[in-house]
Amino acid sequence: xxxxxxxxxxxxxxxxxxxxxxxxxxxxxxxxxxxxxxxxxxxxxxxxxxxxxxxxxxxxxxxxxxxxxxxxxxxxxxxxxxxxxxxxxxxxxxxxxxxxxxxxxxxxxxxxxxxxx
Length: 117
Prior knowledge:
The protein is an alpha+beta fold. The chain contains 3 helices and 6 strands. Strands 1-2-3-4-6-5 form a 6-stranded antiparallel sheet.
């Protein structure tokens, strides 16, 4: 088993750092609440990654193709319907260590691709 697969994203800083690796990405805090950090795509200002703490746990929201939404939710207990977002098009990932980092990165990458269209 590849031990890299089981490394996982757990902190706000980890999520922001990864989100900023995407072309045209920038951070935004639009809610006058520094708990909420959004990573947006500069060309259209759409957010593809929302980062926040809720009930003592770091969480991220990512846009998801409805065809994949339930696959991710069924695969991982820590992937749930998008908190404060359209449940059909957004998933929340609780950064509790149970979702492998490569899977989180894949979901973030898919979110980025969806908002760029």
